[in-house]
Each structure stands twice: as C-alpha cells, then as structure tokens.
Amino acid sequence: MAGQQRQESGCIPCFNCCVTVPQDKIYAVETFGSFTKVIGSGLNVVGCDVGGCCISFRSITKRVEQNDVFVETKTKDNVFVLVKVSVQQQVIPDQAESAMYKLANVSAQIDSYVSDVVRSCVPKMTLDDAFEEKDNISSAVNEALTKSMHEYGFQIIKALVTELKPSQDVMNSMNEINKQRRLRDAAMMAAEADKIRVVKKAEAECESARLQGEGIAKQREAIVDGLKRSVTSGTDEQLSSDKISELLLITQYFETLKEIGAKSGSNAVFIPHSPADGVRDISAQIRNGIMQGGAPGQMRM
Description:
It holds the Pfam family Band_7. InterPro entries: Band7/mec-2_domain (IPR050710), Band_7 (IPR001107), Band_7/SPFH_dom_sf (IPR036013). By secondary structure, this protein is an alpha+beta fold. It contains 7 helices and 9 strands. The relative contact order is 0.08.
C-alpha cells in the first residue's frame, strides 16, 4: 500500500535513545506521542528514553511507489469501459511530516482523485477517441494529482493510462467490424483484378483480330498478285478488277472444299454447279448456291 507507515524501535532493546535509519526510509521522532522532528539515514541519537515510553519512531519509505487504480466509466457513445491508471508517487523529504500525519490512507485518496478525473474526461470522448487520446487522459490525471497531493507531502512522478478495456461483447463487435471491412476491401480488389483481366483479354482479342485481318488482307493481296502474274505471264493482256475478283473467289472456293474434305466428320455444304459450265460462270453459281443452299449435310438437286 502506497504511503504505508510503520512503527520502529531503536538500536538498544527497550531503549529508543538511538536509532539506525535505512537509506530508503525517513523516520519521524515522537516524544510522548507528539511529533518532534524528522531524521535521515544513518545512526541518530535522539535523547534519553526508558523502556520505549518516552520516545517512539514512525517510518515512511522514500522509494517511488505505484498505485494501480481501476475506474469503470462510460464513453460518449454509451460504451462502458474499464480504465486502468498507474500512478507513481514519492514522498517529498522536506514535507515528510505532512506525508505521515495528514492522510490516513494515501491509496484511497489517490483512487478518489483519479476516479474523479477519469469520469470527467472519458464521457466526453467516443470509444475510438478514448483509445487515441490516452495521453491526454494521463496528462489530466497527472495535473490534478500534482496539485492536490503536493500539500500532503507527495510528488507525482507519472500517471499512465496503461489499459482501456471495453466489455468482451464490444471487443468482439469491433473485431467483426474490422473483419468485414477487410473482407469488403479484399472483394473490391478481387473485382478490380477481374475487371482488369477482362479488359486486357478484350484488348488482346481486339488486337489479335486486327492482326488477323491484316494478315488475311496481305494474304489475299499476295494471291491476287500471283494470279495476275500467272495469268498474264508472257502476254500483254491486262486483267480487269472483275476478273481478278472472280479468280480470287474461285481460288478461295476450291481451298475451302479442300479444307472441308481434309477434316473427318465435318459437315459438307454442297453448292449446285456443273463442271461443263465455263469457268467464268462459277462465281455466279457460287452466289446462287449460297442463296439456294439447304441445311448442312443435305444436297439439293
């Protein structure tokens, strides 16, 4: 218990003429129960005594002591919390008389002051603010105790809010809120990643289609150039655009038939035409066949 006092005896049994004071204590000398003086550490001769009836000693420690005060209070958002405040105090040597004789219970006095300050500060804060502003609570407690305890011979070294604990249900709720917030953030990040993946895939398909189109265009251009050279080679004949289109269409048509025939299990589309017809009529037959063609796998006569 902070500020606890003890009755002491002198060096000589049954006589309190002299006394040895430990380094960490302060002794008060009483003559017939009346305070006489304060003596420090070492060997002290205080006067004549018979059987300990004339002179008696009272001691108090000079060490820094700590009081742990627990205060239950309510925050601004109606959450009850248990606040633990650790108060470190020490006797002022020059005021040892006040420290020994003014207060009957030092710990109870400190508890009262701390409870008063905490219950006036915390109800003005929300639970989150109370956690964030523990230093402000400590400063308020320290200031109030320093002013009030100085007249009783004690100096306050430090007042620390070491714990601020709501009920278990509130703690579980706060943890659940944080959990759900993090799950929401994770879901948003996953959705954003899916969006980027879809967009990138679409961009890749668009680029692939563009490149494929460019490749087909270059392929057809090469075919046309080859057909022109093969047909007009060694002659002065010039092919018109219509003839070139017909040659390209016929070439692609026969390549398509070749690909269909090369694949097993594929459905063939038969387009009506006669081998006896002239080559110049094949393009017209292809166009008519597309319009007249039936379902895959069926042949119309």
